[in-house]
Amino acid sequence: MKTPALALVVLTLNVSGPRRVHQGWPTRREAIEAALKAEAADVIAFQEVWREADVTALAAAAGTPGVVADPDLGLALLLRGWRADAHARLDLGGGYGALRVQATDGRRGFDAYSVRLEPGEGAAAARRAGQLFELAEFVRAQSAGRPFVLLGGLGASADDKDAALFLDLVEGRDLCVAHGDEICGRTSSDRREDFIVTPYSARAPRENARTFLNQPLAAEDEEEPVTMRFGLRARLDKGFFALRPAAEPPGRAEALAAVAAAVERARADNAADAARAGWIPFLGTRDILRAQDEDRRLAFLEEEIRSAQSRAAATAARSTP
Asked: Comparing 112 with 285, which gets the higher pLDDT?
C-alpha cells in the first residue's frame, strides 16, 4: 500500500442511482465515472447507490480499491491508499442512515462517514430532528478522540436551522462556509443539501470546498439530466489529522433542548392526527395504529434525548469550579 500524501482529497455525491437499470442510467453513470477519474480522490462517499454493480464500476473508475458498501442504506465509502480497519452502520429506518469506516495507513487514522437523512417538511422535518440527534450521538460514540470527516446529505439545506443544530451537537465545521459566507452553492435544485463536516477548528482549511460534477446537461435524445445532484469536493491538509471532536461541545446543551422541543411538538401533532383519524371508519383505524407506532418511536427518542441532556448537565457540573 502506498503511503498517502499529507493532503486528503474527499468527495461526496448523491448518485441518485436506480434500484433497477433504466434507459438513461448508463449515460449518467458514465458521466459520473469520467468525473471521478478526473478528481483522483482519496475518500469518496456515495449516497443512493443501491446496486453492487454500480458500486464496483464507480470504484474502478475512481481507482479506489478499498470499498465498503451497505446496499440496504444505499451508502458506500471508497478509499484509495487507506485501509478500512473497521466499519459500522446506523439504520434510521426508511432507507436513511449512516455508514462509517475507520481508515488507517498504519501510522495515522481517521473516520469517514457517508450519510443520508430524510428531506422534507412537516412530519418529515420532525423525524429529521430525531435523525440528526441520533446521527450526532453515533458520531460522538464512534469517533471519540479521532478526527472524522462526515460526507453526504443532512436532509436540510445549509441555511436551515436543522443543519446548524447538528453542527452544534458535534461542534463541527461546515467546509462550505468560510467567514460566514456560503462558498459551494447549490447541490440539489436551488439549495445545498450536501455537506462536508470535520471537527471544528478556529483555523479554516487552506483550500475551500467546492462543487464538482456540476454540469446538469441532458444526454442526447434524453430529457433527464446526466447528473441529478451536484457533488462536493474538499482538500484536507495535514492539520486535519490533529483535529479531535470536543468531548462536550459548548453549544450542545442548547441544541439538545431545541431537538427535545421539536420531538415534543411532533408527539403533540401526532396525537392530534390520531384524534382526527378516529372519526374515519376503517381507514381511521389504520391511521390510529400508525400514529401509535410513531408515538412509541418518538417516546423512545424523547427518553434518549433526556438521558443525553442529563449526562451533559452532569459533565457541566463536574467541570464547574
From this structure: 112
From 216, 242, 268, the end of a domain falls on 242
Domain membership flag for residue 1:
no
State which of 131-135, 250-254, 296-300 shows the largest mean pLDDT: 131-135
Final residue of a domain: which of 208, 242, 276? Answer: 242
Whether residue 181 sits in one domain with residue 285: no
Residues 116 and 94 grouped into a single domain: yes
Residues 158 and 235 in one domain: yes
Band (pLDDT 50/70/90 cuts) for residue 269 is confident
d(Cα 67, Cα 299) in Å, to the nearest integer?
37
Domain range for 308 is 252-319
Grid-cell match 446506523, residue found: 90
What gap in Å lies between CA 250 and CA 49, rounded to an integer?
Answer: 36
What b/e sequence results for 233-267 when a residue is b if at least 16 CB atoms lie within 10 Å of its CB, and e otherwise?
bbbbeeebbebebeeebebbbebbebbbebbeebb
Cα(137)–Cα(311) distance, integer angstroms = 12
Q: Which residues of 178-201 are buried (b: 16+ CB within 10 A; e: fewer)?
A: eeeeeebebbbeeebbbbbbbbbe
From residue 45, give the alpha-carbon distance in Å to each of 100, 195, 263, 297.
10, 11, 29, 29
Facing residues of 182 across strands? 177
Count of domains forming the chain: 2
**Residue 63 scores a pLDDT above 80:** yes
Judge whether 103 and 65 are in contact, CB under 8 Å: no
